Amino acid sequence: MTRAVRLASLLYAGTILLSRLLGLVREAVIGRTIGGGAEADVFWAAFVIPDFLNYLLASGLLSIVFIPLFQRHLVAGDERAAWRSFSALFWVVALAAVTLTAALWIATPTLVTWVAPGFDAAGQARLTTLTRIVLPGQIFHILGGLLSATLQARDRHTMPALAPVVYVLCVVAGGLLLADTQGGAGFAWGVLIGSALGPFALPLIGAVRGGMKLRLGLRHPDVATWFRRSIPVMLGVSIVVADDWIVKHHASTSAGAISRLQYARTLMKVPMGVFGMAAGMAAFPTLTRLWASGRPDEVRALLVSAVRTLWVLAFAAQAALTVAGEDVARVIWGTGRFTPAELAEIGQYTGLMCLGLWAWSGQLLLARGFYAAGRTWPPTVAGTLIAVAALPLYALLFDRYGAPGLAVASSTALSLYAVGLTALLVRLLGPGLARPLL
Questions:
Q1: For a Cys staple, 59 with which of 50, 142, 177, 342, CB 3.0–4.6 Å?
Q2: Is the dihedral of CA 50, 52, 53, 55 positive or negative?
Q3: How far apart are CA 80 and CA 73, in angstroms?
Q4: 30 belongs to a structural domain
């Protein structure tokens, strides 16, 4: 890795670690307040429809696709053109986000019957309420992602890195203040407020301080370019996001399975976030510049170095969580609302999900190798094909083994995706990429 990437990685790793640790505090508060039963299942299922909106608008790709467009104007020395590009896309995305949020809010009572077919009528009514609280928060996440892109394009990483920390603090505060009287709705209100104050407000402050010039207007050539590069993600359903939907869909038929699988996923995602997200977010601007400068050999060298380091850390974390998952669960959630058997289940699910930790972490960086080159189709096509092909696997393993089968199916599907991305990158960058990784 270059020195700039190392420094940015350390910044993101530190703040993401803090965010993940706060996330564990959030999970502890949730678990110790509403446990791992029906109310917790409803709370975690309430994120499926908002996450679908986020994915439908390619929110995860907003910064990834926009950074090269924004940087192109900055490199040319035309800052006014950069802000005109940003302004047009900001208003287009804002209009789409508000419109789709309203449509999904109205349709929520119908959609929850697919999200959680195993819930009874009361559970689905409660799910409708919580989903409608959480849903508008996605507007702030989506627009905040675009604001963060303007900062990352200029190597200003502090505000984007702090945003998830503020978000988690708000969720925890909402739960501590309201959960005793409102149950899961207290945490849902914390999610909504945190979405506004963290992912949106902090990048907005940073962008304004950095000279943001927001103009009215929807027309700009970069809007069409962004749409063209994002449409693969909008049309496809990658296994990276579909995995959570599929798991919750099946798990809704087994009381407590959604929440216990969610808690296990949270433990797995601590190292994934610290290693994978930090490396991906920090390396992306550098990868973009290297591609734009016509230096594929340096792109390959950076990816090899970063991915190898990432996988070593991921396998070490996998071993630790596999051995100590149950003990960690006991420390975090205690025995007040969980029986020893339920804590053992969380530990078991954690170990099974960690079988795919290397893939969860690696795909965050491997996919950015394509996005930096402006090629969004390969990761999306690969992810969608694997999502479709893996559907029978999820159903089969759940029918035979219950919730543990879903954890194994999740790890298997993500491992196949990571292998597929590596193979596609080899075609793009040459065999020199594969040998050092393997």
A1: 142
A2: positive
A3: 8
A4: no
Q: Centre a 10 Å sphere on the Cβ of residue 306 and count the other Cβ atoms it contains.
A: 26
Cα 420 from Cα 424, distance rounded (Å): 6
Residue 225 has pLDDT above 80, yes or no: yes
CA–CA dist 369, 18 (Å, integer): 27
For 185, what's the count of Cα atoms within 13 Å in the CB-facing half-sphere?
A: 11
Residues spanned by the domain of 8: 1-15+236-438
Cα(210)–Cα(176) distance, integer angstroms? 35
Tell me which amino acid residue 407 is.
Answer: A
**Taking 70 as the threshold, does the pLDDT of residue 438 lie above it?**
no
* Phi, psi at 218, each rounded to 5°: -110, -10
Final residue of a structural domain among 202, 219, 235 = 235
If we measure between CA atoms, which residue out of 269, 275, 261 comes closest to residue 311?
275
Report the C-alpha gap between 404 and 289 in whole angstroms: 43
| pLDDT for residue 416 | 96
Domain assignment present for residue 162? The answer is: yes
Whether 230 and 287 map to the same domain: the answer is no
Question: Do residues 432 and 300 lie in contact, with contact meaning Cβ atoms separated by under 8 Å?
Answer: yes
Residue that has been written with the tokens 């994002």 in this structure: 230
Q: How far apart are CA 130 and CA 108, in angstroms?
A: 10
Same domain, 436 and 364: yes
Report d(CA 66, CA 85) in Å as an integer: 9
Name the band, by pLDDT with cuts 50, 70 and 90, for residue 12: low
Domain end point (choices 235, 262, 282): 235
Give the CA distances from residue 430 to residues 166, 224, 280, 374, 425, in Å, rounded to whole numbers and listed in that order: 42, 31, 21, 18, 8
What is the CA 148 to chain-centroid distance, rounded? 15
pLDDT of residue 3: 59
224 part of a folded domain: yes
- The answer on 291 and 157 residing in a single domain is no
Reference 423, options 413, 433, 436, 415; nearest CA is: 433
pLDDT of 100 reads 93
What is the tens place of the pLDDT at every residue in 350-407?
999 999 999 998 888 888 888 777 787 888 889 999 999 999 999 999 999 999 999 9
Q: Residue 63 pLDDT > 80, yes or no? A: no
Q: What is the pLDDT of residues 296-315, one digit of tens each?
A: 788 788 888 888 888 888 89
DSSP code string of 327-384: HHHHHHHTTTSS-HHHHHHHHHHHHHHGGGHHHHHHHHHHHHHHHTTT--HHHHHHHH
Count of CB atoms within 10 A of residue 208's CB? 12
Q: What is the pLDDT of residues 256-292, one digit of tens each?
A: 999 999 999 989 988 887 776 666 666 777 777 777 7
